[in-house]
Amino acid sequence: MDGEFEQTFSFTHLPSKKFSFLEDKNTYTLLMKWSMFGRISAQTFTFDRDFRPYNSEKFALCFFQSPQVVSSLSTKVNTGAPVPLDRPVRVEVEQVPCTRVSMDLFDPIYTCGILRPSGHMVKCFHDVFPDYDELRQMLQDEESQHYYVVGREAREEFLFVLFKHLCLGGELCQYDDVIDPYMNATKRIYKDLISVQKAPDTRKISIISTVFKVRVYDESGRCYPGRRDEEQNFAYLIINPVSHHVTLFSHSYGVGTFEFP
């Protein structure tokens, strides 16, 4: 068998790598309000071989089978976040486009009727949620007249996906009535997670990170992130192929922590 297919990766946890969104008071206060604090996490690891996107499934399986990764994730058990088992049998990998270096993707939201000039969200009727608004409807309901005000390709971008996760929040989410907190938190977290480089000749900034959405399965079925198929149970591997760093960014849907660190 070709040695390329037998290639394995080793990982080492980098506990010294800190993320400002988990330490910035304004951001973690918002995450607390949205019932995500204590259930959302980011951890970085180094890996020992060159990464190639075509080898992503092998990379991800090695990652979740790594004793360093399993050991590190087990420390999250007290926050309610589930940890993968020692013997995952399969990892489902889906590449998420990540090309945006500015927030202009969201410009149409400000002019289509979802928001008032003040930035407050326009309320709308919903059978289940009495305090529903046009923004959440645009994010979730394909029948919404505003669903594609942000184009189909743009909605697939990691920047938009991250924004959507923050807007939907956790189990006891206290939704904001204005859009600014969601935009500010999205920008800070995205900047924290994504690596960029500047072309020496044009000085143009481009993203070098590769992002994959991952789901881990054992013999009983899906085991990470969470056994329940809930949109807000999510995990992403964010790979910097230059520095050989990979960040696991994840969230376990539930009731977040309401205590300041």
From TrEMBL:
Please give the chief subcellular localization of this protein.
cytoplasm
- Which controlled-vocabulary keywords does the entry list? Cell projection, Cytoplasm, Cytoskeleton
Q: Which PANTHER family match?
A: CILIA- AND FLAGELLA-ASSOCIATED PROTEIN 300 (PTHR31078)
Which GO CC annotations does the UniProt entry carry? axoneme
Q: Which domain of life is it from?
A: Eukaryota
Localization of this protein: Cytoplasm, Cytoskeleton, Cilium axoneme
Q: What protein name applies here? A: Cilia- and flagella-associated protein 300
Q: Which organism is it from?
A: Takifugu flavidus (sansaifugu)
Q: What does this protein do?
A: Cilium- and flagellum-specific protein that plays a role in axonemal structure organization and motility. May play a role in outer and inner dynein arm assembly.
State the family named in the UniProt similarity comment for this chain.
Answer: Belongs to the CFAP300 family.
